[in-house]
Specification:
By secondary structure, the chain is an alpha+beta fold. The chain folds into two domains: about 25 residues; about 60 residues, no CATH class. The protein is built from two helices and four strands, in the order H-E-E-E-E-H. A four-stranded antiparallel β-sheet has the order 1-2-3-4, with no helix packed on it. The model has no long low-confidence stretch (mean pLDDT about 85).
Length: about 90
């Protein structure tokens, strides 16, 4: 019985994170990462060219890119000496 409950929980977790629908519908699930006790959170979405890090201000009802992906990629490339793709930043 315990294995059955664990199996169901794992299946529900996969569904809630959108892992099964990602190939069918882009960005059907947003996993917010709240910033401290602020009214802001960030999330990652699939853009036309790759990963996009977005910032939302829930109080002001605004959203947009969290930062300039191209500038960050250029700076990371300079620091590490390795090419960093702005559409696939090595961030989690």
């Amino acid at each position: 019985m315990n294995d059955d409950i664990q199996s169901r929980y794992q299946q529900a977790q996969v569904l809630s994170q959108g892992q099964l629908t990602t190939n069918i519908i882009k960005n059907d699930v947003i996993l917010p990462h709240w910033i401290g006790t602020s009214e802001c959170f960030w999330y990652v979405r699939s853009g036309d060219k790759g990963k996009e890090f977005c910032l939302v201000n829930a109080k002001d009802a605004t959203k947009g890119l969290a930062f300039d992906h191209a500038i960050l990629a250029t700076q990371l490339s300079a620091v590490t000496g390795q090419k960093v793709d702005s559409n696939d930043l090595p961030l989690k």
